[in-house]
Amino acid sequence: MAAPLPWGRSQSLPMRPAACYSVAMKADQLEHTGGLNTGLATLGVVAASVGFGLVPYFARSLTAEGMAPHAIAFFRYAFAALVLLPVVYRARARWRALTWGVVAGIAMGLGWIGYVRAVEIVPVSTAGVLYMTYPVFTLAIAWLLFGDRPGRRAIAASLMIIAAAVLASSPSAIAADQVPALLLSLAAPLGFGFGINVLVHRLKVLDPLARLASASLGSVIGLFPLMAVTPAAALFPGTSSGWWLVAGIAFGSALIPQLLYTICAPEIGTARTAIAGSFELPTMFLVGWFAFSEPVGAAQWAACALVIAAIALTPGRAIRSVAANAAVEGRDRTSR
Known about the structure:
The protein contains 15 helices and no strands. The chain is mainly α. It has one domain. The protein is globular. The two termini are 37 Å apart.
């Protein structure tokens, strides 16, 4: 999730981290930059969000093929890291910022293991709602580590998201033996929240593709030791159709959606991107419903509505305030 990295430039704001994790986009773009048709750009963001929402389908199908969760996460990031490796080399003079990007990628890659494990065990709708708690972690980390205090709307939206998580993980929605997997899955939004803050506060000197490249490379580096100690049978899919699933999770739910965000999100601004991006969660619900015959009850749909309402509430301040403050600080330093 998420991005939950390139944005585009405006005349008054520096380039921001974006599409690798969708919330970075939702947090950042403060101006309409013009270029693409607004309707077409909106459809592009919706398509990217649907791609991110398909992750549970690929993840659960690949675990059924016998792949370990960390192997699935590795392949999801490896193709983007490989394609964008020359970008890292060209930006090598900015090695401090690249190091921060790699650290962020390690956190996000390792955290994603918990999400894959949860999707394997618990209903997709429940895992999806818990994954969408990443704005809460983002705001908390921004406040604790970077002194970026959330506003009232941010706090209200965070409480709504917490309520949605409680609703979706109530005893009526999950079994007692699924609780450990759900708790482990919170590593994904925690790592995501940390990564978003690093992208916003530490990577402004990098161009957008270098931000995406460094984070993807970090995820691969963080997951590689686990790959090295895993039996070969759990590293790769067991059938030829499994390799199509690997291609799907690497391109259809990672690289291509990231690039769509890169191109389209700057054209429609924060508010519209946040709303268009909220298609990710209903997509997860529909994946569970149609692909895995999981019933989606009233509690899950109510949780989904709460999350989307929170997303609609946040563009003015909540998540955006993290990036907005960073942008203002960077602009102020430039003008001194």
